[in-house]
Backbone:
């Protein structure tokens, strides 16, 4: 049977560390090793955990140099993730989040 952790990892199309998903489950009061079922899938705790996992994709560090990017999402991908993530936050009554796409370090610009 599928666990809550596995369900979260399966729903996020880009790999995130299992430990990150476990931390999110703990913060949301979920037992990640419990069986995943329809009741859990529709719970606010699970929807919030899924939104948090999606947000971790937006927060991932991107390295760019000489026109090459590592770990970068396209603008369209970022917008799609934000739309899905904020739809979940709205559904459970939490504030939406922005993409936080402000660069913090420039080297050789």
Residues:
């Amino acid at each position: 049977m599928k666990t809550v952790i596995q369900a979260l990892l399966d729903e996020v199309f880009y790999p995130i560390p299992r430990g990150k998903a476990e931390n999110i489950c703990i913060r949301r009061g979920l037992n990640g090793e419990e069986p995943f079922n329809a009741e859990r899938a529709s719970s606010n705790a699970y929807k919030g955990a899924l939104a948090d996992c999606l947000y971790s994709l937006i927060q991932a560090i991107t390295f760019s140099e000489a026109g090459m990017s590592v770990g970068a999402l396209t603008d369209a991908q970022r917008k799609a993730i934000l739309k899905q993530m904020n739809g979940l936050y709205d559904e459970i009554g939490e504030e939406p989040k922005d993409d936080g796409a402000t660069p913090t370090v420039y080297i050789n610009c």
Summary: The helical segments are 4-11, 18-28, 38-41, 44-59, 75-91. The chain has a mean pLDDT of 86. The chain has one domain: 4-91.
